[in-house]
């Protein structure tokens, strides 16, 4: 399957998710969103060991060493949300923005430079800030609870505006060799994502983007990197290798939801801290993979 075919499927699934949101309550949206994020979303980082270490490097010692370092970074990132929430949340948003943008534009193989880094980071930040601004009442409650300070909707607006300016300025340079038809498709994708965020709750909107628009294309890229192509047998091999992480994430989801189902705000805070912890080492691994490809 080509990237073009993959994004056709993503568009179809996106509108299916929008239809589902008209048929279920917000509580069900949040529950389904958590299932998607902590299963498919988490699984897309389950092969980081294999991606980071070449086949010749996969000795037991190197694997255990990498896993130990990975766990330490995850724990430090998670704990950081409670020890220094302002700094950790800021880093998480910046790193996540860079990661989302880098993964999305990797298929175009744009020339590496600081301008490209700024462009992909601005794209990813646009996605996140657009989600936060559209769902400002929910997002600001979560953000202000984490950082213990007052961030306003106006500040979100100015941050979004500045990000748009940077994106347009850097994009005019970085995308100068990309056909106008392709750029039009990218604008269409942004419009669809805007519609998703505008018609969904904060958690459901993020889940649709994170799973469909980020995790699935990322898994496609990873499978191609690991196996050379993305045929059915390779997809199943990737899933089987990730099955332990799948089960662990579902157990984590079940326990978390059981104890915190009446405390939605605190539940979202814990989810953000957990995702932040696993994001930091994953971004490092994927950055290395993209530069190898």
TrEMBL record:
Record Pfam families: BCD
Keywords in alphabetical order: Cell membrane, Dioxygenase, Iron, Membrane, Metal-binding, Oxidoreductase, Transmembrane, Transmembrane helix
Assigned EC number: 1.13.11.63
Cellular component terms per the entry's GO annotation: plasma membrane
One term of GO molecular function: beta-carotene 15,15'-dioxygenase activity
Catalysis: reaction(s): all-trans-beta-carotene + O2 = 2 all-trans-retinal
Transmembrane as UniProt keyword: yes
Transmembrane region(s): 7-25, 31-49, 70-98, 118-135, 156-175, 187-212, 243-260, 266-285
Topology term for the membrane: Multi-pass membrane protein
Any one Gene Ontology BP term: carotene catabolic process
Subcellular location field: Cell membrane
Keyword flag Nucleotidyltransferase: no
Needed cofactors: Fe(2+)
NCBIfam families, A to Z: blh_monoox
Family the entry assigns: Belongs to the Brp/Blh beta-carotene diooxygenase family.
Cited function: Catalyzes the cleavage of beta-carotene at its central double bond (15,15') to yield two molecules of all-trans-retinal.
Protein name: Probable beta-carotene 15,15'-dioxygenase
Organism: Nonlabens tegetincola
């Amino acid at each position: 399957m080509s990237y073009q075919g993959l994004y056709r499927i993503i568009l179809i699934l996106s509108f299916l998710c929008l239809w589902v949101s008209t048929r279920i309550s917000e509580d069900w949206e949040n529950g389904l969103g958590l299932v998607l994020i902590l299963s498919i979303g988490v699984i897309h980082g389950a092969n980081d060991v294999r991606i980071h270490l070449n086949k010749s490097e996969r000795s037991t010692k190197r694997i255990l060493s990498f896993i130990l370092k990975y766990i330490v970074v995850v724990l430090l990132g998670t704990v950081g949300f409670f020890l220094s929430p302002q700094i950790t949340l800021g880093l998480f948003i910046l790193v996540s923005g860079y990661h989302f943008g880098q993964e999305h534009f990797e298929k175009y193989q744009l020339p590496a430079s600081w301008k490209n880094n700024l462009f992909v980071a601005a794209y990813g930040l646009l996605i996140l800030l657009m989600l936060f601004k559209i769902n400002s009442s929910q997002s600001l409650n979560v953000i202000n609870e984490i950082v213990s300070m007052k961030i306003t909707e106006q500040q979100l607006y100015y941050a979004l505006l500045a990000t748009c300016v940077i994106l347009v300025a850097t994009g005019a340079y970085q995308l100068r060799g990309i056909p106008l038809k392709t750029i039009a498709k990218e604008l269409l994708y942004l419009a669809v994502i805007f519609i998703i965020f505008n018609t969904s709750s904060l958690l459901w909107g993020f889940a649709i983007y994170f799973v469909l628009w980020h995790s699935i294309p990322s898994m496609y890229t990873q499978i191609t990197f690991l196996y050379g192509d993305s045929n059915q047998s390779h997809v199943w091999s990737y899933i089987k290798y990730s099955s332990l992480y799948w089960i662990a994430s579902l157990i984590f989801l079940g326990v978390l939801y059981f104890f915190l189902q009446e405390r939605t705000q605190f539940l979202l805070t814990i989810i953000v801290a957990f995702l932040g912890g696993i994001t930091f080492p994953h971004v490092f691994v994927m950055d290395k993979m993209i530069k190898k490809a």
